[in-house]
Amino acid sequence: MSGTWRDAFLKILHWLRSHLQEDFKWGYYGSMAAFLGLCLGLNFYLLPDQTIERWMTSRYYGKPAGFLAYFIFYGVPYLIATLMHIGFHRDYALLRSLKFWGRFVLVLAVLALDAGFYTHRALYTLAETPAGNYALRRIVGNLSSVLTIFLPLLLVRALLDRKLESFYGLTWRNFDPRPYLILLGLMVPLVLAASFTEGFLNYYPTFKLQIAARVESLPAWATVTLYESAYALDFVWEELMLRGFMIVGMVAFMGRAAVMPMVAVYCFRHFAKPFGEALSSIFGGWILGVIALRSRSLMGGVLVHIGIALMMELFAMLHKL
Q1: What is the pLDDT of residues 177-187, one digit of tens each?
Q2: Deepest of 107, 226, 261, 304, by most Cβ within 10 A of its Cβ?
Q3: Rg for the chain, CA atoms, rounded
Q4: What is the structure's pLDDT at 28?
Q5: pTM for the whole thing?
């Protein structure tokens, strides 16, 4: 690890600036902003008492058709963002690439598998009351991504991507944590300010200790530690999917065009969260996507994602003490 903290941070800024210079077109970025802005408005203000995700998928809860519903739910933003890139950058070769479209379908299949996986929710039937086994259900729910993301991508890597130097960027090799710690530090006042809003406190903390305390036999500190550990681990698999498979794994097929479709999907994955978080996911997703593209590593994203997530949990818990 060489250089100063300032040099490490300036390197990240150079990556972001270079990507913007190469990729930016007013029509492209303006159209993406309009599309995601329209979807955010529809999701948070025009659909009464539900989200776009719930509207599209709730009727298929626990059914095989749920996989197809989520394939379409994520396929729409992914396809629109891809077509916008093709149109504004005149990258028509991408339209004719069968390898790209095959990988496009594979990405959506893993996303749909992860979102539409309901087997672990059978634990609900173990409870005599709605609150029963709350901690167990929440912990297992966070660990389910091992089955829906980690293992499928491990198989894809073994069959299709053996030439990649790492497991879609999941490596500590040449990783410098300093710029990401700076980014986390910059996020502290923003998350702290957000923690005073009603939407934030209605959603966070994601683990409702007052429910678990009524039915669980473990001490509160042990229950919270187990849950938050599983919660943090889930973000490793989230980064592996979004910045790993969708960026590092797609560079050979899309180049820098891999970033914006991932951003659109990432935004859609936040539709059930507070509006401010969904909006900021566009900017955060773009930054982490560019970093993954340039560094071929997702460890920075893992560090930032886990750090922000646990920061949100902590601030919300402090508000509710």
Answers
A1: 999 999 999 99
A2: 261
A3: 20
A4: 98
A5: 0.93
Largest CA distance in the chain: 61
> What per-residue confidence (pLDDT) applies to 83?
98
For residue 230, what pLDDT is reported?
94
Determine contact, residues 40/278, Cβ cutoff 8 Å: yes
Segments of the chain with pLDDT less than 70: 1-2, 118-132, 211-218
Rounding to the nearest 10 degrees, give the CA dihedral for residues 48, 51, 53, 58.
-50
Q: Look at residue 216 in the predicted model and tell me its pLDDT.
A: 58
Structural contact between residues 60 and 69, judged by C-beta atoms closer than 8 angstroms: yes
- pLDDT of 18 reads 97
Q: Is 156 helix (H, G, I), strand (E, B) or coil?
A: helix
Nearest Cα to Cα of residue 117 among 77, 159, 69, 78: 69
195 φ/ψ angles, rounded to the nearest 5 degrees: -65, -10
- Unique residue bearing structure tokens 């681990």: 233
Cα-based distances in Å from 293 to 13, 107, 285? 14, 17, 12
Q: Is 31 exposed, middle or buried (0-12, 13-18, 19+ CB in 10 A)?
A: middle
Residues listed for the chain = 321
Which residue type does 182 have?
I
